[in-house]
Each structure stands twice: as structure tokens, then as C-alpha cells.
Design a protein that fits this description.
The chain is of the alpha/beta class and 203 residues long. It has nine helices and six strands. It has two domains: 139 residues, Rossmann fold (3-Layer(aba) Sandwich), CATH 3.40.50.2300; 59 residues, Winged helix-like DNA-binding domain superfamily/Winged helix DNA-binding domain (Arc Repressor Mutant, subunit A, Orthogonal Bundle).
Length: 203
């Protein structure tokens, strides 16, 4: 495992391929595109050593000894990792790559990898990984809401005023205000409109 070209504004890239020659070519392209890249020579090493709880991009070879690309991808889905997966294929592996896209891979690139296709796939994979991480963070925030807070959040998003909510739940308006403030804080919203948008995403 080795790391190259750290970059502060792009997601890290994991390159998983047992072919050192292909890996060197991909690492060169990734460096040209200003991506930090960590190389793993096997699926087992990647799963054991990578930080799978952080958003990132994975360039994943389909055919590897031991755990192949499909097996690695299945494990990533099992762990609910927020990684944008790009499949690397050789001649004759397109059907396998298409199957992986059906279960969540972003794209597949045939070897030797072209720079323009790689750049486009990286952009899409990065967006997907960031979106996944944001949704996971929102779900964790929502899990911290109490039953009453969830009830009030739902009524807020239906357009009810604090007074209407108080009447509906038979509680004081001041109590509604306190709960409302807690909901906004826990979900990381800045106003009621943003709260409603976040709540809609959770639904």
C-alpha cells in the first residue's frame, strides 16, 4: 500500500488492482488529475486497511486472485460504505461490469484507461460519495430526535404554526418553541424552510 499526491479539495481515491503495470498507469493519470491515491494490490488488503467509514472513490479491478472485484463491491455494500465505485475491466469483462453498475457502481472503464473518461467518472463518483455521506449524517442526526421532536418536526413540515402545533398536541406554545429549536439544532438546519427540506429527504 502506498499513497501519492495528497490533495485537500478532492476525495481520496483507492486503486485496487493486482496488475502493477496497470496500477502505475492509473496512478500517473490520477496524479495528473490532482487526486490523492492509495494503491492496494488485493481486495483483501483494501478491505482490511482502508477507512471505509469515510467518503472516497474506488477504482476496482474486476479480475483479481482471491477476492475479486464483485466480491469487494458486495462487501462494500454490506458495510454501507459511502464510496463511489468505478469498475476497471479488461477485454471481455463488460457484462460483469454492467452487472456491477446494476448494484451501485458508478461507471466502468476499460483498460488502458483514457484520461478524459477517468476524469468524468471521478467527478460523478465523488458526487455520489459525498451525497451518500451527507444522507448518512442526516440519518444519524434524525436518530437523535426524541419521539416528541419527530412529531413536532412532522407538523412543522406540514405548515402548522407553533400555536397550531400546541393545540394539536395539547402542549404550551413555549414548549413547542423549545422542541422546535432542538429539532432545528439537531438536524443542522438554519430555518424552517431548510428544516422542511431536510425532513422531506428523510421521508
Amino acid at each position: 500500500m502506498t499513497a501519492d499526491n495528497p490533495s485537500s479539495h478532492r476525495l481520496p481515491v483507492h486503486l485496487v488492482d493486482d496488475d502493477a503495470g496497470v496500477a502505475d498507469a492509473c496512478r500517473y493519470l490520477l496524479a495528473e488529475l490532482d487526486h490523492a491515491v492509495t494503491y492496494w494490490s488485493s481486495g483483501e488488503a483494501f478491505l482490511a486497511g482502508a477507512k471505509l467509514d469515510e467518503p472516497a472513490i474506488v477504482l476496482l479491478d474486476m479480475r483479481m486472485p482471491g477476492l475479486d472485484g464483485a466480491g469487494v463491491h458486495a462487501e462494500l455494500r454490506q458495510r454501507e460504505a459511502c464510496l463511489g465505485v468505478i469498475i476497471l475491466t479488461g477485454h471481455g469483462d463488460i457484462d460483469m461490469a454492467v452487472e456491477q453498475m446494476k448494484v451501485g457502481a458508478i461507471d466502468f472503464l476499460q483498460k488502458p484507461v483514457a484520461a478524459a473518461a477517468l476524469a468524468a467518472a471521478l467527478e460523478t463518483a465523488g458526487q455520489r460519495a459525498r451525497q451518500c455521506a451527507a444522507e448518512r449524517d442526516l440519518a444519524h442526526r434524525a436518530a437523535a430526535l426524541s419521539a416528541r421532536e419527530r412529531e413536532i418536526a412532522d407538523l412543522i413540515c406540514r405548515g402548522l404554526t407553533n400555536r397550531d402545533i400546541g393545540t394539536a398536541l395539547s402542549i404550551a406554545v413555549r414548549t413547542v418553541e423549545v422542541h422546535r429549536a432542538r429539532v432545528v439544532d439537531k438536524l443542522g438546519a438554519t430555518n424552517s424552510a431548510e428544516l422542511a427540506a431536510l425532513w422531506q429527504r428523510l421521508q
